[in-house]
């Protein structure tokens, strides 16, 4: 039962051994592009600040206009493939009442400028504590500094700059990576490039850093497999599934963090690799994990252009898999049913894709859900020997 | 403000560059020891099953005695340094009423034997789904199979075998590691040893696998720094603090997982390295994160002998640091006060260590808590340039 059932079949086998070289975007190009982006970031901050300064000197009232960050200001573009922010803006004018938040916004931009210039970074929490030395402009609560940072991020996103380019990085852990990939990471101070070969970590893996903008890649893999659970990732990694299937494995560990999403997006874009998602068949796996990975989330649409991975397709577990593979199931809870109905009724993504409406309807009618590890009913390595090879033989069948 | 204040001072500087070799326990020895343990595991399972079989054939009623897993059956031993399980047992006798759980227990042991023999592994969830093919012995709910697995684990822990040696591995993600360390990991199938140099991950890190029993280490580091937050870990890693301070950094990301705790324990034991914990100064950081890392937790005392790290000492942030470094604070919430009072009154660990009683009393009197990132008030890299060097100059001052 624990033993394998038969020899692996399915997708073409990759060459065994080390990840071979293929560098669609060279490390030097990435560094040059990042230096250019850093220049634009500093220019934009300087321009914004000068504008305010000039207005004040001219005895006018300066203002700053930020895109509205809310579901009402979001649309789903089939063209770009992700949630996009609309044109609504909120204008903050310098008055007696707004002087503190106005000053805080400018100091926060100033911090970003310093960080870019010193090639350093700060988390949201770091930025909050930094402000404790800003005297009257200090924040009393981290929710206040988070809001200001989100506003600045939204403002600069209109110019194509992400929060990471402003050097504000997430506090959260990145996902784990293994497989046919070499990550190139230039040293912060010397610029010397470290080559990180993701075929060489034994049963362990490469842990994605908080910010991935400086990375470039070499790979001959055919696709990226984004996996929901640590358990399935560890199984595929320990059994070197990436070697057999010639791919790159990424563990999302639930809803993927910003760093994980950005990493997958950048890797997929720069190496032109398809991304396949392998998650639990339940409304959470479909409408939270998969939907967030692919098109972003409604209340953070200003992030989508950088963080979502519109080229992702849904390998499984599908509602039809539950029948085809006679998987053990759990009944859908009320919260699952509500989440599925919400997706059908209100989610711009699912409303556009007919195959998803059919699949979610099918799940609701069956009234059950199944975890990806349910495949272990047929043997612990059934997922490696049977399920994934069968699926990977027909990527055109994947849900959109 | 974001720039460094002055040159690093404090602990002796390590040699720059790659982690040098020092292999207190050679990879071959670890493999030989693991093969021996595998032999004992299979023998024990066989002996237990034969005992039951013989009783049945002699028309007697077989029974299995499991250690009681509860706080009432736990003591804190200053000698070993961790929570220990007492001698209370619950006896499960084969009767008409217990036949199903009796059979499930034996099948679960059988699964473990198969896993050891095929050098494979299963998570709790895998094991649950495997049982779906055990006909009448299948589990209806994962809580049932988890309980049986915990019982078996407790039973074998008395013989010095951990759950990982039974090949049951956690589903959860391991922590991230960077610094002066080479991890040696033999391939599951070929036994060929992969050398993983944790100085070579750029801004990323080494992600600890679910099971670490097969690993061995080479290092010339002077200590292990176990860090609560991903943000501080990323700062220390990006600025290569491990090079300046000659150490190994481990990100716990909150309460450390089993794999992370076991990794630190094994690394510290085999390389005789002190472990210093760097966490938030609040009752959660002290009594949940630090206490769990050091002595284990009350309701899982059967794990302590494998998972706790009794040699850990508390570097900071201490209540006294809040005063000495004039840190920004948050008021203690009711839940914090309750947790701190519980620790003083009921926790066998804190009841034994007077310096902790003084420190927790001080925190309660001050009525505030401080996060480790609060040091960013004095500059983002103050933690690297001032705080840690000052602390590391006097490890004898660390809390026990």
Can you walk me through this structure?
The structure is a homodimer of 400-residue chains. By secondary structure, the first copy, chain A, is of the alpha/beta class. The first copy, chain A, has helices at 27-57, 99-117, 124-130, 142-157, 230-238, 241-245, 258-271, 283-295, 301-307, 319-324, 334-346, 348-352, 354-366, 382-392, and strands at residues 63-67, 74-77, 82-85, 89-93, 122-123, 168-169, 176-179, 182-186, 193-197, 205-207, 216-218, 223-227, 247-251, 275-278, 312-316, 330-331, 368-369. Chain A contains 14 helices and 17 strands. In chain A, the strands form 6 sheets. Chain A has a 6-stranded mixed beta sheet with strand order 10-7-13-12-14-15, with helices on both faces. In chain A, strands 9-8-11 form a 3-stranded antiparallel beta sheet. In chain A, a hairpin with a 4-residue loop joins strand 2 and strand 3. In chain A, helix 3 packs across helix 4 (142-157). The first copy, chain A, is globular, with a radius of gyration of 23 Å. At the A-B interface, helix 2, strand 5, helix 3, strand 8 and strand 10 of A face helix 2, strand 5, helix 3, strand 8 and strand 10 of B. Strand 10 (205-207) of chain A pairs antiparallel with strand 10 of chain B.
Can you summarize this structure?
The structure is a homodimer of 400-residue chains. Chain A is an alpha/beta fold and 400 residues long.
Anisotropy-based shape of chain A = globular
Q: Main interface pair? A: A-B, 65 and 64 residues
Q: Report the major sheet of chain A.
A: 6 strands, mixed
Radius of gyration of chain A: 23 Å
Assembly annotation: homodimer
* Total strand segments of chain A: 17
Low-confidence stretches of chain A: 1-20
Count of runs of 4 or more consecutive helical residues of chain A:
14
What's the arrangement of strands in the largest beta sheet of chain A? 10-7-13-12-14-15
Q: End-to-end distance of chain A, in Å?
A: 34 Å
- Supply the helix-strand structural class of chain A: alpha/beta
Give the strand content of chain A: 15-25%
Q: What's the mean pLDDT score of chain A? A: 88
Helix content of chain A: 40-55%
